[in-house]
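Archive entry: two folds, one per protein. Generate the first.
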Amino acid sequence: MLPLPIFEYHKPRTLAEATGLLAALGDKAMILAGGTDVLPNMKQGLFEPEHVVSIAALDELRGIGFTRDPGGLEHLVIGSGMRLSEIADSLLVTRVAPALAEAAGLVGGPHHRAMGTLGGNICLDTRCRYYNQTYFWRKALGFCLKKDGTACHVVKGGAKCVAAASNDSAPALMALDAELLLLGNTGERRVRAVDFYTADGIRNTVLRPGEIVVRATIPVVSGRRSAFEKLRKRGAIDFPLLSIAARIDRDPEKRIRAVDIVVSALGARPRRVRAAAKVAPGAAETGLAESLAAGAYAECKPLTNLDEEAEWRREMVPVLVKKAVARALG
């Protein structure tokens, strides 16, 4: 059994206290929400914080409800401290953002969803077959670009880490036009989910040191439907080998207004399928799933950063895209 390293544990009572503490501790601290990924990674020597700041008990990060912006548009608001199981079971989320409810319901196993939070999943570390191993395994290999080493074992000679985004909520939030509220010691800022992730497997989000994801806001759009599909070796526990979020918007006459498809678990950042953006308003539904599946297949080229064969994962791209689009079309 791998033991946890020694660290000092902090449990702030308010969000302001948490951000102040994180600012004071700097890069010596790490945020702990549900702990389902942080703690195992600490045991493997991937994270080595001197301080752990728990935000699990902050009521300010809780809640699911509706709000309206100054223009009168309604939004679904989900606190980052909500458990994944709560999001999966929420009738509000299921009605407005079914892709997110489905994604939350497919994270890990029941015990992961009972502890893991939306904010933790949004900020989940990228994964790689050469990185997510014990210290002794990684040392025998000579370490890697992401941790303790200088070489990428996926892309020989590569100067950038290509560990894969593995957070199921990310493609769903991107496809649903979600906005994230971030709070640090210097104030708050709002970032669209599509702009939150970067192509750097070491630091794949735009989060600044000490910032906390407070909530996700999703616009309530009439005529919008969405769906999520996930590929993994087993029906539970496993991280995704591929994940797909599809969104279809229809006008009052039931004609297609817009389409968005986000593919993830291939590289450090979830990617929007360009073929979806090319679908013209009023396009016919007949053959749409097939054409988008073909477009996604042409665009997506998985790397050998996860355990299963990259070619098999690529062959599964059109299969899952077709299923997700077909379900979103209803």
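Generate the second and append.
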Amino acid sequence: MLGDLIRHRESFIAFRYNDFRKFLSAKFLLTLAMQMQFVVISWQVYEITKDALSLGLLGLAEAIPAVSIALYGGYIADRSDKRKVLVFVLLGMSLLSLVTWYVSSLVLSGAILSAVPFYVIMFCVGLLRGFYSPSQFSLMTQLVPREAYANSSAWNSTFWHVGVVLGSALGGIFLGWLGKQVTYLIVTSLALLSWLQVLRIPAQTFTPAPRTENVFKSIRQGLHFVFRRQEILGALSLDLIAVLFGGATAMLPVFAKDVLHVGESGFGLLRAAPFAGSVLMALFMTRYPPLKNAGKKLLFCVAGFAVCMIFFALSKSFYWSMFILALSGAFDNVSVVIRSTIIQLRTPDDMRGRVSAVSTMFISSSNEIGAFESGFAAKLLGLIPSVVIGGAVALGAVATASVGLPKLRELQLEETHRKGE
């Protein structure tokens, strides 16, 4: 009884800190807004082009600038007030959402007949995300003490996934019920609320860059740090390969429309399913963080994710597909929390921005560039074979990592977390 009470209190340890609560609400609102926006944009682009590859190019348009600017964004995060960086980024996101509403109105009126403006918008979103990702991760770490790192990572993942679940579902529902224009205005309002929440967080301390510091040398230090640590590089590489080759979420509009025949609302539910599974798993991990045998759990869950993608590709049932996607989300979220906790615990304070930037590059490569790979592979091999083959490649990567990366396989975070090493 006493043990259960202690674990219950430890589940909410990060919420003792008011600034963390503000940070979490801001991230939730922005995630909600961006997911709703992407759902509507992806549907609108597919309506214009009728081409699965166009959805892959949409992800690529965001990934290229995000990856290109991420290392510099990490440098800025390590040498600036992270909160101030986020204020500028979120204001930019809000303005872009308003621009999206205007562009959509021109498309609907027939003044624009091309999807190109949407690609330009996603390119600008990618530029902002290159600064947002390292700054928000570094800021979160500043807002809680070391003993709350794992808990803050779990709650951060929980709220992010809840935002994605609601954003994906509401994006599809609002798209069908309220139309594109009203949905874009709701997105703009949510982004502005996120911006206001970050404004309420006090300014944070940071180490200014010495006048003689070479920016490129500083960035190289961050890269060298990651590539010298097998557990960090291995976790990031597994995420990259699994989602780059094994992910199928970018093709969900095609599965919804041409395979499962469930339309716009069904598309929103399919997109929400993996994140629903992620939320349930994340809530479980707030109470039981995956610190013991973390390496083995990471390998198992990446393999589970890949298997789910294969079964999803072969499914002809809407409800069975939703269940498989939810299960894939649960597997994926374990690896997300483990990866985040590794970076928090094993990275010095003055290097978190740059290390997080490297993580951003891997994640952007796996998600957005993976979306392009999915579209290209679907066009080349066919929709279902491309997903099945991609899942098999991801399983091969897990097998290789389990043999070739012993430090990752034997990783234990429990001792590091307890001793504060």
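Annotation attached to the second fold: The domain at 14-200+217-419 is CATH 1.20.1250.20 (Growth Hormone; Chain: A;). The chain is about 80% helix and 0% strand.
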